[in-house]
Amino acid sequence: MLRQYELVERVKEYDPDADEALLNRAYVYTVQKHGTQKRASGDPYFSHPVEVAGLMTDLQLDQETIVTALLHDTVEDTLATIEDVEENFGEEVARLVDGVTKLSKIEAMPENERAAENLRKFLLAMSEDIRVLLVKLGDRLHNMRTLHFIKSPEKRRRIARETMDIYAPLAERVGMYEYMREMQLLAFEQLEPEAYRTITGRLEQIRRQGGGQVDAIALTIKQALAEAGLQVEVSGREKHPYSIWRKMAERHLPFDQVSDIMAFRVICESEADCYAALGVLHTTWQFIPGKFKDYISTPKTNGYRSIHTSLIYENSMRVEVQIRTRAMHRTNEFGLAAHWAYKQGDRPDGQVGWLRDLIEIVDASHDAEELLEHTRMAIYQDRIFAFTPKGALFQLPIGATAVDFAFAVHTDLGAQTVGAKINGRHMPLRTRLENGDVVEIIKGKNAEPQLSWLGFVVTGKARAAVRRAVRLKERAEVAEIGSKLFDEIVARVPAKIGKKAIRDAVARLELEDEEDLMYAIGSAKLDDREVMEALVPGCTAEMAEDGTWPTRERVISIRGLTPGVGFHLATCCHPIPGDRIVGLRKPGEGVEVHAIDCFELASGIDADWLDLSWGRRSVGAVGRLRVTLYDRPGTLADMAAIFAQNLANVVALDQVQRDSPFQTYELDLEVQDLAHLTRILSALRASDAVAQAERI
C-alpha cells in the first residue's frame, strides 16, 4: 500500500504545482472515515482507495481526480455525506465522488433491474465528466485484483461477469487496453477456471520449450529494420489467454490450431517510419492477406492508432506485428486517460461521440432489459468504417445496415429514412454495410421508424430509437381508440360531462392526465363501469338497481390507425376492408380485430367486445387464399401473372400438398379491400391453370 508521502511525491513528479495540503487532507480523511473497516483480504479498508489513487497517478491525472479516488467509497461505506465532501474538498470533487459512488442501496430491485439502474446513473454521471469513468475503472481493476479473497464462489462469479460484460468493454471503448486486458484475464479466471488453467499451462509449456523464442524473433525483427536504417524498439509477448480462448470458441479450434499466439510491437520515431517499417516487414516476410489493418490513417472511435499486420515467420509460424509511434503507444495503452495529464491543462468535456450515443440509449430505453441489451450492443462488437457522400467517417459494428448508419449520423435522420444509396446504387435498407462503403440516406418529410426495422438493425442506438418511436405511436393510436370509446361511454352517463368532470375523473383514477385516461380505456386497463363511476360517482349503482346496464350503440371506426400498432388483425381469419368486423379488447393486449364469421371468436367470449368498422376509404390488409393448381409446367407462373395483373403483392407462399395431378398452395396476399380480393378470386377461378381457389 502507498504511504501518504509516497502518493504525494508521485503526484508532484508530474505536477509540481499540485496542492500538497489538499492531497494530505484527503488521505487522512479516508483513513479516518474508514477507520477499522477491513477488506476480505484482512487489509485495512482504506488500502483500497489509496491503491486506486495510485492507479490514477500512473495515468498522471489531475489532483481533483486523485482526491476523488481517495474519497470514492466514503459516502457509501462510512457516515460521510456528499455535503461533508463538498465542505472539505470543494464542489468539483463532491460532484466527481457522487458520480463514482456505487449505487448498491438499490437492493430491493431484481438483479437485472439493479444492474440496469446502476448503469443508467453511472452513464449519466460520466457523460458530465469522463473522469468519473476513469476512477470507476481504477476502482473495478483493484477490486478484481483482490477478488480471490472473497469466499463465496457465486459472488466472485457475479462480480467477474459484471466486469466482463460492462467494465472491460467500457475500458476498451475509451482505449484503456491495459485495464481491459487485465480485467478480462482476472474475470476469465473466475468464469472459466478450467479453460484458464489449461491455456495458461500450455503457454507456460511453450515458453519452456521455446527457450527464449519470443526474444529471438523480436531481435530478428529489430535487426531487419535496423539494416533499413530505422531506429525502433521491438518487444514481444504471447497472446492474452482470454483472447486465445475467445478465438478458440469463435472458430471452434483446439489450442494447437490457434496459429498467431505470438504478438510483437514495433515502436517507431514518426508516422513515416511506421509505414517504412511496414514495407520492410512485408518485403522480408510474407504477410497474410486479410490480416492487415491501418488504424493510423483511420483511427478507432476511442482514438486507437496503430498498423496491424500478420506475417508468416520461419517454419510457417504466424506472428502478429503492431507498428506505432511512442505517442500513439501511450494513447493506445491508456486511451482517453492519456489526454488528461495535468501538464496539458485540459479539462474534460466527456462528450465523445460514442458516449453521446450511450446517453441517447439511456433516454430511449423503456426498461431494464432494453437498457442492458442496447448498452451492451453499443460497447461491444468489432467495427467497420462507412462514409457519407461528403467523406465524413462513421464507425459501426459488423453487420450494421443502412438504417444503423442513418441513426449513427443523427437520430432525426434515422427517423426520417425511406431509402438508401450504397456506393451510388439504390439498395434495400436491410443491406449489410461493408468496410469503405459510401452511404447516402434518402429521407422523407413525413416518414417515421418502422417496427419491421427491429428485424435487422444491430446498433443499440438504432434499436432504442425505433422501439421508442413505435411505443409512442402505439400509445397515441391506442389513446385514439380510447377517446372514441370514451365518447361512447359519456353518452351513457346520466349527466353532461365537461372538462372539469374529466379532470376530476383523472384525479380519482390516480392518472397523470387526460391522454393517460384515454390510453387506459383503449388498452382495457379500465372498464366502462370504472370510467363512469369516476366521471359521476354513484351513477353505476343506480343503473344496477333497475337491473339494466347501458350497452354500446355506436360503431367504433379504426380508419387512420395502423395495423400492428393501434390494433392487431387476427391471423385466424385475416380480415380485410369490406369484411364485417368486431374487436376483442383484452387488458394489456390491445384490440384484436376479427371477421364477424371467424370460428375463433368463441375463444374470446369473456373479452370486451367492440363493434368496429373500417371507416370510409380504409384500404390495405392481407388476405389468405388456398389455391389448387393443375400439376403441370407453367401453372404457377399463370397464377403469379393473375396477381400481377390485379396489382396484388404476394407476402408469403407455402406449398401445403402435392398430389398428382394437383398441387395446393396457401398464400398471403396484400389487397386493397374485399372487392379487390373478390376480383382476384374470380380471375383465379376463370383460369385453366387453377382447379380451385377459396379464401381461408
UniProtKB/TrEMBL annotation:
CDD domains on file: ACT_RelA-SpoT, HDc, NT_Rel-Spo_like, TGS_RSH
Residues annotated as domain TGS: 382-443
Function, as annotated: In eubacteria ppGpp (guanosine 3'-diphosphate 5'-diphosphate) is a mediator of the stringent response that coordinates a variety of cellular activities in response to changes in nutritional abundance.
Name of the featured protein: GTP pyrophosphokinase rsh
The UniProt record lists the keyword Transferase: yes
Swiss-Prot/TrEMBL keywords: Transferase
One Pfam family it belongs to: RelA_AH_RIS
First-tier enzyme category under EC: transferase
Originating species: Pelagerythrobacter marensis
